[in-house]
Design goal:
It is a single chain. This protein has about 140 residues and is mainly α. The protein is about 95% helix and about 0% strand.
Length: about 140
């Protein structure tokens, strides 16, 4: 059985003193360190959240700019294709005109040469016909 005497009071006083000493030397410093660590963690979390928001904002801007650039590139591509098609049509039209002109010149030249050849052949035909007639008849015509 436990006896209640003055040692219990000394032990109680020792226990209370030990609680104050431990509280002063151990618990308060550890709690301060834990509190500082929690504050740093909260600050880091806030910084991370702020950075994530900034990153999301920048990514949204980046994607928007990429979409806009793609649209502009498509518009420019279509404009260039249209210009190329128009220039192609212009060039083809000029070539057709040149071909028509050269074909007309060629036809004119061919007609002139054909007329010359016919004239030469007519003259030669008369001469040859006269020679043949003279040989067949045996006299000059």
């Amino acid at each position: 059985m436990v006896e209640l005497n003055f040692t219990v009071w000394i032990q109680t006083v020792n226990f209370i003193v030990l609680i104050f000493v431990l509280n002063f030397l151990l618990y308060k410093p550890v709690l301060k360190i834990i509190e500082k660590r929690n504050k740093k963690i909260e600050e880091s979390d806030e910084k991370v959240k702020a950075l994530n928001e900034t990153i999301e904002h920048n990514m949204a801007e980046y994607e928007s700019k990429i979409r806009q650039a793609k649209v502009e590139a498509t518009v420019q591509k279509n404009e260039i294709e249209e210009e190329g098609a128009e220039q192609g049509k212009t060039i083809i039209g000029k070539v057709r005109d040149e071909i028509s002109e050269k074909l007309g010149d060629f036809k004119t030249k061919l007609q002139g040469e054909t007329d010359k050849a016919r004239g030469v052949l007519r003259d030669q035909t008369r001469t040859i016909a006269t020679e043949i007639s003279e040989k067949i008849l045996g006299r000059d015509i």
